[in-house]
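LisH domain-containing protein ARMC9 structure dump, as promised
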Amino acid sequence: MGDVLAHESELLGLVKEYLDFAEFEDTLKTFSKECKIKGKPLSKTAGGSLRDSRSLIIQKDLVAAFDNGDQKVFFDLWEEHVPSSIRDRDSLAQKLEFYLHIHFAIYLLKHSLGRPDKEDLDERISYFKTYLETKGAALSQTTEFLPFYALPFVPNPMVHPSFKELFQDSWTPELKLKLEKFLALIFKASNTPKLLTLYKENGQSHKEVSQQLHQQLIEAERRSMTYLKRYNKIQADYHNLIGVTAELVDSLEATVSGKMITPEYLQSVCVRLFSDQMRQSLAHSVDFTRPGTASTMLRASLAPGKLKDVPLLPSLDYEKLKKDLIWGSDRLKAFLLQALRWRLTTSHPGEQRETVLEAYVGNDLLDCHSHSQRSVLQLLQSRSEVVRQYMARLVNAFASLAEGRLYLAQSTKVLQMLEERLKEEDEDIVTRENVLGALQKFSLRRPLQTAMIRDGLIFWLIDILKDPDCLSDYTLEYSVALLMNLCLRSAGKNMCAKVAGPVLKVLSDLLGHENHEIQPYVNGALYSILSIPSIREEARAMGMEDILRCFIKEGNAEMVRQIEFIIKQLNSEELLDGVLESDDDEDEDDEEDHDTMEADLDKDELIQPQLGELSGEKLLTTEYLGIMTNTGKARRKGLASVQQSADEPLRRPITPGGHRTGYPVLEGYPISPQMAQPARNGSLPSLTSAHPPVYEGAEPSALEPCISSSRKNPTADIKPGEWLPAGHQGEARLPSSEVPNQAPGSGETTRSEAACSGRGA
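structure tokens r here:
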């Protein structure tokens, strides 16, 4: 109570000041009378009168500077006393400030008796020009002000018809009147009572603190995801190292049996390869004289005794989700697409991620099997750039997983819409990147390869790769990798034969590109198409061997060996006849591939939630919680079995993410390739042939014969320069026999992909 009495006079004065400001005249009289009766002291409100007198002085100084053409004094006072929130955000203030700058720029032209001082005039014009290029640039799109942007460059504005109005006698008085009204309004608003000021400042402070905490939370979540990715990358590298070490130990043990090195030396080598934590126990417990003991222990170290249980994510109401994805606002659609993608990309690899994907597939999240006029898949054609991009990201995330590709491949309209989006998308680079990434992963499946070749996608790729410096790293890598995958097929090689010159020119130019990530794919494509005699003849005519030998001088050892294979293919005289086994049979079982969830899927998010707005998993579990829509089914994992020499160019379909990671997914201990992307530091080690990346359904033949001329060629009618999206004439329809009829999550039989050598340094 003592504190209240100590400040009672000031508090009562604040109340009186507010009542006076709000013009509560009767209330103010009653309040003052009651305070007098009760003997309550009222503090004098001298502060208000002082502010009023000070405001009047400032207004007079501003008007005087306007009349005198004193530009520096005026704008110093203007920036000091007119709040920046008004100057920067109020449209009337911005327009008035623009005309005030014009007033001072032409002041000498209007008020000089003779010729104005050139130096002073040039200084004013320069000041105006600087304003136009900085703060005034915001009004450059407004028709009202557009002509005045030419004012600094007109030699004599007084006679120019566009500026006739500025030099009329009425223009300056009208501008002065607008200025006085504006100042009166601003300074009246600035004389708000202290009680109101305290309330507003306190509320604004709380709002700013809340926003700051919210932003800190977002940053903390982002850092947490980054650290998780780093942890998974280290974990994946560790497993790669142990796997390679096991191979090395097998070789060393074989030499031990030939008495070339001693078991003691082998033991010391193996112990040095282990972590400090494992050295002592293994050094004392493993009998390295028994064949297979060391490699068995190494491989056993990869399989933990008991994995930490990872809870399944809550079930969702997919009917409500799909309804809002189709009929909701664009902002809601974007947040839902983002949240659904994050469920895939941030879920724990293994049962948790598999259950998420199986729920998506089982509930036909993308409406791949829907025949309705409006479907979720049509968001790829949305008018909203954000919705299109986020839909493309989600499809790319689906395509990153083998079961996701199987789901998408069962509908011909998915490939058709992606090809159309790829052709039409020229506004958003990220959208095109994700569409291209999805198509490249589609090319791991043979029926989809056939459809893309039939649709003439090779011609589009050749055209875009003519100017690789204009492409992002992602677009370049996935374009070249897609081209290579399509060129591995006989139909793709025959398509390239129609435009042999441009194809060879593009690939030879890419050999010297600064992005070394693409070199294995360029080499693989060259090696493949040079199996066609007509392309070999074209390559010899353009001096391809000399071009290749230039890169032999500059390349590293692994790249040199690959180029030597290409030169050998170039100089081959072998004629492939049509009786050889064709690689174009579609009815073979497709194999499970690595799940390559690259980090690029979540880069550069376009939308951020506002204060109080739900997003991510919180949005899904708050608004779309369902009952028993998750059904956990374990997928069978298998290791790759087909191997390829690390010296040879790639001859089997591959995806850049899988090529960079190149490690096995061990049964019961899955690892996320998304977390294991190597740093692009120019050091590009070769992948061990023991753990090659896998693809889906390629033929393991070493050479791929062309289709004989007697056999029906589905690409024969496509001409270079035409790019026909699926769904138009020549639509690629996938027979049911081409896609295994399997329940989601039941798994696919595995056929392995061989690895090529590492990327050049």
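The domain at 456-575 is CATH 1.25.10.10 (Leucine-rich Repeat Variant).
lmk if u need the other ones
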